[in-house]
């Protein structure tokens, strides 16, 4: 019922954006409407290759991962949460899942927070921000990961999982998050280099998958048997683009309406206007917020980065992907991300106040 209401709102956003485009983009919603389709290219480049390779990856990794995860009593689907929801995390989770519910939880909820942070926010962020901001970026990521259990628990509860089962299933994720946080805090330069290598590896695999799938489509020659057809991957991308036609105008509307109260609230917290704007735009994409970091005050940078761990692409790519693949999981996605955002901001405020008192 909730996801149906959300989809109706997205449809109204598409109508408003389309009408504004016809009228010459008088109110700015037509531009956002156009951006929905403009995301198709970048989305396809980041998704199609890994979606096509997912059956092969799951088969290969399954022989290595499944015994280890079974020994821990964890569903192998949770391994998929190491990739972003829209970069193969969902497909890998569902391919490896022994329990379909855990597969959906890992591929939608956990992958949209933890996986997105590992394969997108950290490597992209380290490449976009100024070198002097890397320590505060590392600290913000660490605080965001520390707040991540709030997202994982609330999202799992909405899915119908018990708290004990959620914590048990997320044991590898939480341990890796802890190690990641310690590494970012202790050896940020080494972690930066490691993530740069990891980002290149992911990009290489995604591109190779896209090339192989394209060759099969154009020639009929199956280079590697077992890959998913490129048409299936493109169907997922196209459905995301359709949802973005409505979600981006809706997000623009919300940003305009919430800017004044959020600015007032931010002023009380010690956030400058650029920092507040960063919080508003990262729910569409974290990239603009990362670019704006150089103009934020130190506290604003810390809040934005911690918040970004859960907020990234909440009302854009992740919403569109969830609607196109698992619409019933949309409430879990939104609730988990909102809980993670709130917990991250609270944790930054608490630790900052504690430091001031000390």
TrEMBL record:
Transmembrane segments: 6-24, 36-58, 64-85, 105-129, 141-164, 171-188, 200-223, 235-254, 274-293, 329-350
Gene Ontology cellular-component terms listed: plasma membrane
Name of a matching Pfam family: EutH
Gene Ontology MF terms in the entry: ethanolamine transmembrane transporter activity
Keywords: Membrane, Transmembrane, Transmembrane helix
Keyword Transcription regulation: no
InterPro entries, per the entry: EutH
Protein name: Ethanolamine transporter
Species the sequence originates in: Hungatella effluvii
């Amino acid at each position: 019922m909730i996801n149906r209401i959300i989809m109706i709102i997205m449809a109204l956003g598409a109508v408003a954006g389309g009408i504004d485009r016809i009228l010459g983009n008088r109110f700015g919603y037509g531009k956002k409407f156009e951006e929905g389709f403009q995301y198709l290219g970048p989305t396809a480049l980041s998704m199609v290759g890994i979606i096509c390779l997912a059956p092969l990856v799951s088969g290969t990794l399954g022989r290595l991962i499944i015994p280890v995860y079974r020994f821990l009593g964890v569903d192998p689907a949770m391994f998929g949460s190491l990739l972003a929801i829209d970069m193969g995390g969902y497909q890998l989770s569902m391919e490896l899942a022994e329990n379909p519910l855990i597969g959906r939880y890992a591929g939608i909820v956990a992958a949209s927070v933890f996986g997105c942070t590992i394969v997108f926010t950290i490597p992209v962020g380290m490449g976009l921000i100024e070198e002097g901001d890397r320590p505060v970026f590392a600290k913000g990521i660490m605080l965001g990961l520390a707040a991540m259990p709030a997202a994982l628990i609330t999202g799992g509860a909405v899915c119908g999982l018990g708290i004990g089962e959620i914590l048990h299933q997320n044991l590898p994720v939480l341990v890796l998050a802890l190690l990641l946080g310690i590494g970012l805090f202790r050896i940020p330069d080494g972690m930066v280099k490691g993530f740069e290598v990891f980002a290149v590896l992911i990009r290489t695999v995604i591109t190779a998958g896209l090339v192989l799938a394209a060759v099969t489509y154009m020639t009929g020659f199956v280079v590697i048997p077992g890959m998913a057809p490129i048409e299936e991957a493109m169907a997922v991308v196209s459905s995301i683009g359709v949802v973005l036609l409505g979600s981006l105008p809706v997000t623009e509307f919300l940003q305009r309406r919430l800017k004044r109260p959020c600015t007032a609230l931010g002023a009380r917290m010690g956030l400058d206007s650029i920092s507040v704007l960063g919080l508003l735009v990262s729910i569409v994409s974290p990239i603009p917020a990362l670019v704006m970091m150089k103009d934020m005050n130190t506290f604003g940078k810390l809040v934005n980065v911690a918040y970004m761990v859960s907020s990234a692409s909440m009302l854009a790519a992740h919403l569109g992907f969830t609607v196109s693949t698992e619409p019933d999981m949309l409430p879990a996605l939104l609730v988990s991300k909102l809980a993670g955002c709130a917990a991250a901001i609270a944790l930054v405020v608490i630790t900052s106040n504690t430091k001031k008192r000390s």
